[in-house]
Amino acid sequence: MRLRSPWQPRLADGAGPPGERLAAALSQDILSGELAVGARLPAQRDLAWRLGIGLGTVTKAYALLERRGLLRSVRGSGSFVAATEARKGPLIDLSRNAPPSGVSERLLARTLAAVSRKLDADVFNTYPPVAGHARYRNEMARWFRRLGMEADPECLLLTGGAQHALAVALSTLCGPGGTLLVEAQTYPGVLTLARHMGLRVVGVAMDGEGMLPDALDWALHDLREEAGGIAVYLTPTMQNPTTGSMGRARREAILAICRARDAMLVEDDVYTLAPEAEFPSLASLAPERVVYINSLSKTLNPSLRVGGLVVPPALVARTENALHASGLMISPLGCVVMEQWVLDGTAEAIGTAIREEAARRRALAGAILGPAMRDARHVGYHVWLPLEAGRAAVLETAARALGILVTPPASTAAAPGTPEDDASCGVRLCLGAPAMDELETALRAISGLVENLEGGAPPPVLA
């Protein structure tokens, strides 16, 4: 005799299709622990009759939950809760912060055909200057100008992407035994890089706009006797991971403190997609105080690993030495493609398409996540879910059990476990890389997890 299912059939609240509401109701009750691992689910035909919906609708809902790893079907026995089992299919990755795809095979073919007709063999047969060929530095400066950043090509050095530029900047400004000040929640890549380089990392308190000027002032005051170089790292527009943007007054306040304390600042501007007078680059406000970083990989295509590092004139020689030590040359082919796209207008077209797609994905996330997602002034490729540290960790673990990767909360925290970390903690979701249908599936699952956390339900039992 079969055991009766303990589940009381229901559809989740909302105006969605019955199948989605059924899947949401079951997900909520499984992940909250109301339905224990191994519990039998109602027979599909009986459930369809009791809810007044079609048998095919129930079948599709059960299949969706099985793909998510929440159910398992046993031939001849029925369906059972399987929250301890991992997703069997491919993971949906919301942890990689890449732009939406804006380059088709046809466009690539057309680009390669165009550059093949005007290749300069000398570019490929000789080492370029350390900072890159002048013609490519001029084109990168032209692209930066399109983003609102006026850069002197003589002070612009080409790098193998923004991460390479960041490594060169930290090597130049901090050196061995130096100190890097960052926001309490910051870009995971800068934390990994700084710790790899042996730098001391100091997290500075932040609010909705980013780093707090008074907190920075106190931190620099406390470090005044420290040996080694000191630098401040910021992403002032569409901050990674919290999506905050500094208004002009905050930017000027931060720069005033850096001047008073004689501190250099590294501006990571990879998420600026269009110029705005209200949000000028820090480098344009204080070119003598700021090292500016940008890259084509975030604004055009992740495979176009060509970045630019703009430094004050007094730092050009030192930065060239650091750049030479980290790599002898930037890919000539990448530079040729960059030049072609900037000159023929392709870069502008791709950039516009990416901005439109990013806005569409952000709108989808807002519609699904609602107030759980922090509202952002700018559109980018990630969103932020503010959560207390413990709940953020539970969300990451539960999402992984459903086959969804999110940015690990500990990876963005400058000082994990501190009160400052807990006050600003959360989970970053990257929207650019997944296919649209996978993104929607993942966001709906995460929305259910957040609702359970906010409702005080116990976390799911996970293996």
Number of strands: 15
Uncertain regions spanning at least 5 consecutive residues: 84-88, 456-463
Helix fraction bin: 40-55%
- Helix count, per DSSP? 19
Shape: globular
What is the compact description of this entry?
Helix content is 44%, strand content 13%. With 463 residues, the chain is an alpha/beta fold. A seven-stranded mixed β-sheet has the order 4-12-11-10-9-5-6, with helices on both faces. The chain has a two-stranded antiparallel ribbon with strand order 1-2. Strands 3-14 form a two-stranded parallel sheet.
Describe this structure in words.
- The protein starts with 17 loop residues before the first helix and ends in a 9-residue tail after the last helix.
- The protein has 19 helices and 15 strands.
- The longest helix has 24 residues, at 346-369.
- The chain is α/β, with parallel strands linked by helices and 463 residues long.
- Mean pLDDT is 87; it is low at 84-88 and 456-463.
- The strands form 5 sheets. It has a 7-stranded mixed sheet, with helices on both faces.
- Helix 1 packs across helix 19, helix 4 packs across helix 14 (332-344) and helix 16 (389-401) crosses helix 19.
